[in-house]
Amino acid sequence: MLKSVSAERLAIGSIAVSLLVLGLKLLAWWVTGSVALYSDALESLVNVGGAALALVAVWYAQLPADSGHPYGHHKAEYFSAVAEGIMIVVAALLIVHQALEVLWAPDLSDLGPLGLLVNGAAMLINLGWARVLIVWARRHHSPALAASGRHLMSDVWTSVGVLGGLIVALLTGWAVLDPVLAIIVALNILREGVVVISSSVGGLMDSAAEPGEQKQIETIIHKAANGALQIHDIRTRRAGQALFVEFHMVVSGAMTVAASHEICDRIEAALQAEISGIHATIHVEPDNKLEPVGINPS
Ligand SMILES: [Zn+2]
Ligand SMILES: [Zn+2]
């Protein structure tokens, strides 16, 4: 049955599941007044927001280039990830604020089995959905869904920690465990946010292709550029699924435009055949522009 479901459907399913889980966790917080359960609920809120943002971003990023965005819309993915990171950090600060307020006068008089059961049910739903995502992602080689499955699993562990801690608090009467757990959850969320932000800022800053990819590009050019004298000034930049590469190609000054263009087309085709999403721009130069260092095609 899993096989027939598409990635988009699963992404929408993720949002539906996280809304349900969020509702249950808010209910558990409302029944108990526990800051630890509040922190768990805020973590879910961030998940709902993040999943919705990601869905919009993935849809927008794959729109074809148009006159307003002639290089395509790929960077929308980074933008949504940075926005998600900021949301995560705000959630963590809200939790810390709330926890510090009750730290010196913790009160768990409303904490009872009902709130814990409701939160536990939410945790089990998350666990089940995480398994669905992970199994599906493995079968279909989807890194994005594998990542959200793993993220959901880390939320399950957070909930297990919170529930375990609250059960101890309930049994021993150590109410201070409640704000302490909330702060631990907040720190964990904060760590998540920093990872999300730092991995996306690189893309917004036009970072170069991975070193392995750069090597691969050089090898392909070396093989495909015969007829040219030299290739130099290769620059790459990654934009989500797209990879842009530019370089100078030196040919004999006597070569016709048609002949040099043919070499360009050959290199572009060779790059596109081996690297998905690559766009090449080639600047042709006569032989007085040879540089001391460059790729010299055989
Ligand atoms: Zn546009
Ligand atoms: Zn040059």
UniProtKB/TrEMBL annotation:
Domain Cation efflux protein transmembrane: from-to ranges: 14-205
Places the protein is found: Membrane
Domain of life assignment: Bacteria
Assigned keywords, A-Z: Membrane, Transmembrane, Transmembrane helix, Transport
GO MF annotation terms: cadmium ion transmembrane transporter activity; ferrous iron transmembrane transporter activity; zinc efflux antiporter activity
Transmembrane segments: 12-32, 44-64, 76-96, 116-136, 156-177
Pfam families recorded: Cation_efflux, ZT_dimer
Membrane topology per record: Multi-pass membrane protein
InterPro entries cross-referenced by the UniProt entry: Cation_efflux (IPR002524), Cation_efflux_CTD (IPR027470), Cation_efflux_CTD_sf (IPR036837), Cation_efflux_TM (IPR058533), Cation_efflux_TMD_sf (IPR027469), CDF_Transporter (IPR050291)
Signal sequence annotation: none
Main location: membrane
GO terms, biological process: intracellular zinc ion homeostasis
Residue ranges occupied by any Cation efflux protein cytoplasmic domain in the UniProt entry: 213-286
GO cellular component, one term: plasma membrane
Protein family (similarity comment): Belongs to the cation diffusion facilitator (CDF) transporter (TC 2.A.4) family.
Protein name: Cation diffusion facilitator family transporter
Species: Parasedimentitalea maritima
